[in-house]
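We emphasize that the prediction below concerns an isolated chain of 500 residues; any contacts that depend on oligomerization or on bound cofactors are therefore not represented. The input was used exactly as deposited, without trimming of termini.
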Amino acid sequence: MRARGTNLWLLAAAVTAMIVVAASLGALASSRAAADPPSCPSSNPPNELTLGGGTPQTAQLDTGFSNPLQVALANTNGCPVTSVVGTPITFTAPSSGASGSFATSGANTVTVGADGSGNASAPTLTANETAGSYAVVATSAYGSVSFSLTNSAAGIPATITPLSLATQSAAVNSDFAQQLSARVLDANGNPVSGATVSFTLGAAAAGGGGGGASGAGASFADGSAQATATTGSNGVATSPHFVANATIGRFTATATVGNVSVPASFPLENLPGKRQRLIPFGGPKRVATVDHRYSHPLRVLLRNANGSPQSGATITFTLGGSGGGAGAGAGAGASASFAGGTSTATATTGIHGIATSPSITAGSASGTVTATATTTTTTSIAHFTLSNRAGKPASITAGIATAESAQVGTRFVLALAVTVTDALGNKVSGARVTFTAPASGASGNFETRTPARSVSVRTDANGVAVAPPFIANSEPGGYIVLAAIAHGPRTAFALVNDAP
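Result of the prediction step, given as a token string:
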């Protein structure tokens, strides 16, 4: 009896042990199944459409959006999709209001096919002429997604207005005292800089002395009725000087700018006066390098009331101050002088009505200098512009980014910039500056269309060259980026790529 009980106890213990082992094996199998997820299926069609890039973004009216609108076909199981090449995806912008058109279709909608990975990009979208925000919808058999876009009118001319509405007058065949000035604003009321304004000395007013070629009018220094000027940071553009013709009467001048249909108007009037006229001969502009002689002196032609050359008249040439008037340069100390160091000189018109000044020498500062020619027999004034051009680059100075650091793989905050001057300290414009980073080790690349370790940039009117944004590579450490002019001066920037 005791032996039988013992055997039963041993049998129960063995069963219990088998159950424990089976449970352990089951747990081990479960853990292995959790550690080794099932592999992706060989056939995995998409079941959703996802955004890839291009939202949100903004573009000026009538310009293309810089980033492409991108989508991707995907499967919610996270595995790569299969059999998706050519799957049609339609991009649709609004049919009215703020919208845009795609490059290949020229319309507000376009259909493209997905590539082998399920990715698709719309052709470049160009904003239309209506400002505002809107959505572009990408649609496929597997759903749709939306892109948030904005057409901006900022920086685009919307209005042009004259700075003065008063009627300006001048004696026939003489200079108008004030140039024409107009201000250009965008749709938000902000000044637009860099816009090209066209000035036209136009038609005679009704009852104001006739119209057509025989009517009252005026011309710029080159004899034409049209001239252009560029708006400054205040949105203002100023015409060159202009001269009344020989007809008494009223007429209107206009100023126009692209994208604006309504011009600015200027009421003008030619009054009776002396009939002689002084005209710049050989052009009103002269250029010379600082501290060098201008290749051509000032020359004027004096015509009488009949338009014939007037001989024997005394002409006074005067070299004025720097700047002043349209197109003035940045050099506040620009100057010039006649032979002997004087700022005035006289000459007498010959049988052809022409008078020629003595030779002219540019001062040591770059910039523009105004010059005039006058005579006592008429109020007409001939205007000249002398440009003192900076000499060859002699010095290059690094900006505030001379010692800067950034974490590896990120952009340096301060742009690499230099100022180029000649031997007299004048800012040199148009000089080509090459920025070069090391070819190996700690270094970086300039953010251009194709990232490069070396870029060339020309200096602006202030002698400043600014390199594109610079991005540290993945190698920590310090290094030097050189800025140099070919066969000329150079400077350096000490940069550091910080470890993460």
